[in-house]
Amino acid sequence: MNQVRTRDRGWVRALNSVVNPAIRLVCFPYSGGSAATYRAWASAMPAGFQLIAVQYPGHADRIAAAPAGSVAEMASSVAGELARLDPARCALFGHSLGAVVAYETAKVLQNNGTPADCLFVSGAAAPWQAGGGATHRATDDELWSALRDLGGIDADVADNAELRELLLPVLRSDIALHETYRPAPHPEPLRCRVRCYYNIEDPLVDSARVVAWAAVGTGRFGLRAWPGGHFQSLTDSTELIGDIIATLAESGLPQ
Questions:
Q1: pTM of the full predicted structure?
Q2: Would you say residue 240 lies in a domain?
Q3: What is the pLDDT of residues 136-189, one digit of tens each?
Q4: Which of 31, 150, 164, 193 has the greatest number of beta carbons closer than 10 A?
């Protein structure tokens, strides 16, 4: 019997239809997240803003694809696909794992002569502090419980044994990528604007580890904090989206 192969759709998904965008906002999910994480953002985009989300291998419509081997590999692949899109000014946003993938992607884009206008990072320590940890080596029960306590597992999914069996390998792979991530030593500073977000009850980051993002580049740096835990700014994203749009507008982009 012949095995049916599904063609891999690649790394980027357009979440709205914009012709000749003034800005392309590219969003990177957290561990276990997918491109659909940012679908609700589409309705908040001003005219001229194209919303793109990244789909990691092994997730959603790429479930059959082999997991990425490293954050650097992910960044190179995303940058390669962005280069094949129609030219547009680009901003990157990433939460948690997505923050370091977005950072590495910004480095590749800059090295290729197409630097991003802005890098937005959320819920993540600065690159040289982001790695470490052994959560990816925990037992299934320990890993599932840790993610549930963090707020990363919906209540209607937490007790579903079939979904747990399906999701755990993907979550473990993503967390391993994050915990084993090490940035290259002495990277060229980013020249784009960098803006950071975190929630003050987030057990994974604190103000000192977030402020350290200021050292990744020579452009203007900004920071905002809100109440809540690790996923709060994504669960209630109105202020976050508003701040991103306002920051881009300050750079001379349309509101």
A1: 0.92
A2: yes
A3: 877 878 888 888 887 777 766 777 778 788 888 889 999 999 999 999 998 999
A4: 31
CATH number of residue 94's parent domain? 3.40.50.1820
Residue 230 known to be catalytic: yes
- 237 labelled catalytic: no
Strand segments, DSSP code E, in the chain are: 12-14, 23-28, 49-54, 90-95, 118-122, 193-199, 221-226
**Does 178 map to a domain?**
no
252 pLDDT band, cuts 50/70/90, is low
**Catalytic residue, candidates 59, 95, 178, 230:** 230
Query: How many structural domains is the chain composed of?
Result: 1
Which long-range contacts link 17-21 to residues 24+ away (Cβ below 8 Å)? 18/45, 18/48, 18/49, 18/50, 20/86, 20/88, 21/48, 21/49, 21/50, 21/86, 21/88
Residue 179 lies in a domain: no
Q: Do 73 and 60 touch, CB atoms closer than 8 A?
A: no
Q: 93 and 99 in contact (C-beta within 8 Å)?
A: no
Options 31, 96, 122, 233, the catalytic residue: 96
